[in-house]
Design a protein that fits this description.
The structure holds two protein chains of two kinds. By secondary structure, chain A is mainly alpha-helical. Chain A has helices at 2-10, 35-44. Chain B is mostly beta strands. Chain B has four helices and 24 strands. The chains are: A mainly alpha, B mainly beta. At the A-B interface, helix 1 and helix 2 of A face strand 1, strand 2, strand 5, strand 6 and strand 7 of B.
């Protein structure tokens, strides 16, 4: 909560100053091509979720 | 041609209306009919055509109880279409196939010699010699010609996003379904994302439900036991009628009885997840996000096709008696260990994954992308994932992104290797995906971008080509390789 309050209260980057943040590689999500890896990770590993991928559905989802 | 386009538009509108009504967003859509200019959430139709290929090799096949050939190949073509319905609303359709061939799955029925052709019941008996001959033979190390050696998954999903006029709030909903030979899945969900602090801060909440169902396929010897009961070795209609079942010494006996097996009483597998996301701009070069998923699964969480062997029960085989002592060696091609039971796991599972991303823009040539996940569940699995990607731009068009991923996990409480479970246990699996291991994955992605490109198909212009290659090495010996491509088009 302390981290949450501190980061939200003291940082404000204006929209016109976000040329770096708007770079496609700065997106806070996996790339489209990564979906196939996410799928086989779900099948081959017991852990899943919290990465934008599926959290259930499909017989390989442990 | 125009009539077809009109029909397509009508269908799209109907689907959109259904999604809106399903999640009660009609009121939001009606409020946002401002006449003033608004920048569109999505400017034009975008089409992504993806193709993924995956291959693996390993020696711990789960269908044959934790040992055996794990060779698998998968190819998955997918199309993703994003359609702006107006300034505020975007509909995304995601359609794909996933076709695989698997040595492990093929051994649901491993007895591919003689007249047997898989899940059918053509085999009518062996020679009874107890030492091989012309009777049925199989091996966990050899892929069978059984019907379960291959399958095609078909999946379709639709998602809808609505943005408010100030673009500070996004409502989303989705619905989807997939089908394969022994499994079908139906899912739906919805969520909301709120931005504030001049869009420096973002909070999202999402709920998702999957209502899945097994169409159970169980190992041949268990299936025969289920159908014919304790007489399945002598019943004339049984697959095993006239077949020699061997004990560990190679002698023909009539004692094999997988009596621990009980029929699957619930074919449903449902998943309910609640996701909380938070992201924050830290500086004009750095931002991060945190995602927490709470997932509950219930129903038949084991795989009915996967065998389990008990160390406190006698072992029984079909095939070449001379190779029984060599059973766990890949050189065994003609003797098969009959199962004691199928995999059994608890009917509920709670998962708690927590993921974090931190991205840093170094300069116009380099970005650092990082991801970490901590995962816990009530089956005893404790896992860590770390990934770093380094997109390097050579110029406006060419980019290469080397990547490295590390993963480790502890074993589920119910895992034991081949032939090490006890028949007194309630739950058991020899699926090495639930064992303790670590792995690393190394690879890269090449991307070519040309926003002014004149190449295209029909009215679609090709803007981006991606090629991603990954090598995956697991500490239990499983190795995999994947290659995927992405062609991104926009509608002129």
């Amino acid at each position: 909560m302390v981290v949450f309050v501190s980061v939200t209260s003291c940082v404000s980057v204006k929209e016109y100053n976000r040329v770096y943040l708007n770079d496609a590689d700065m997106a806070l999500k996996a790339g489209l091509c990564e979906r196939f890896e996410t799928t086989y990770h779900i099948y081959r590993e017991a852990a899943a979720g919290a990465n934008g991928g599926k959290t259930g559905g499909g017989c390989g989802c442990n | 041609m125009e009539e077809k386009q009109v029909e397509v538009v009508v269908v799209i509108k109907k689907i959109t209306l259904i999604l809106l009504m399903s999640f009660g967003f009609v009121s939001f859509a009606q409020k946002d009919t401002l006449k003033s200019y608004k920048k569109k959430v999505l400017e034009t139709v975008e089409v992504d055509m993806l193709l993924g290929f995956y291959t693996q090799k390993g020696t711990h096949a789960s269908v044959t109880g934790g040992i055996g050939n794990e060779d698998l190949q998968n190819i998955a073509p997918t199309v993703v279409i994003k359609i702006p319905l107006n300034e505020d609303d975007v509909l995304t359709a995601d359609f794909g196939f996933s076709a695989y061939t698997s040595a492990s799955s093929s051994n649901g029925n491993p007895f591919n010699t003689g007249a047997s052709t898989g899940e059918d019941r053509e085999y009518s008996g062996g020679d009874g010699s107890g030492s091989g001959g012309q009777g049925p033979k199989g091996s966990p190390w050899v892929a069978s010609s059984g019907a379960s050696r291959k399958d095609v998954l078909t999946a379709l999903s639709l998602s809808y996003v609505h943005a408010t006029d100030d673009r500070n709030r996004y409502w989303s909903s989705n619905i989807g379904s997939s089908y394969e030979y022994d499994y079908k899945s139906f899912g739906f969900g919805g969520g909301v994302t709120q931005l504030w602090n001049e869009k420096n801060t973002e909070l999202s909440i999402k709920a998702q439900v999957y209502l899945d169902q097994w169409i159970p396929i169980i190992p041949t010897e268990i299936d025969e036991y289920e159908q014919f009961g304790s007489d399945f070795l002598i019943d004339n209609q049984s697959y095993f009628s006239g077949v020699s079942v061997l004990n560990s010494n190679g002698a023909s006996v009539a004692e094999y009885l997988p009596s621990k097996f009980t029929p699957i009483d619930n074919v449903n597998r449902n998943s309910y997840s609640f996701s909380l996301g938070f992201s924050q701009i830290l500086t004009h070069r750095m931002q991060f996000s945190i995602a927490l998923d709470l997932v509950k699964q219930e129903g038949w969480l084991a795989n009915p096709l996967q065998r389990v062997y008990f160390s406190d029960k006698s072992n029984y085989y079909v095939g070449n008696a001379n190779n029984i002592s060599n059973y766990e060696n890949p050189s065994n091609t003609d003797v098969f260990h009959l199962a004691d039971d199928i995999e059994r796991l608890p009917s509920t599972r709670l998962k708690y994954p927590l993921g974090m991303r931190l991205n840093y823009y170094v300069n116009e040539y380099l970005v650092i992308r990082s991801y970490f996940r901590k995962y816990l569940d009530d089956w005893g699995v404790d896992s860590n994932t770390f990934q770093v990607e380094l997109p390097v731009k050579f110029n406006m068009s060419w980019k290469i992104t080397p990547s490295f991923r590390y993963f480790d996990q502890t074993a589920a409480d119910y895992f034991a290797p081949y032939n090490q479970h006890l028949s007194t246990q309630d739950y058991y699996t020899s699926d090495y995906d639930l064992s303790a291991f670590s792995n690393y994955q190394v690879g890269g992605e090449f991307v070519f971008t040309d926003v002014l490109s004149k190449y295209g198909v029909w009215k679609l212009s090709l803007k981006r080509i991606g090629l991603r290659v990954q090598n995956y090495q697991r500490s239990d010996g499983l190795s995999a390789f994947s290659i995927s491509t992405n062609f991104s088009f926009v509608l002129d």
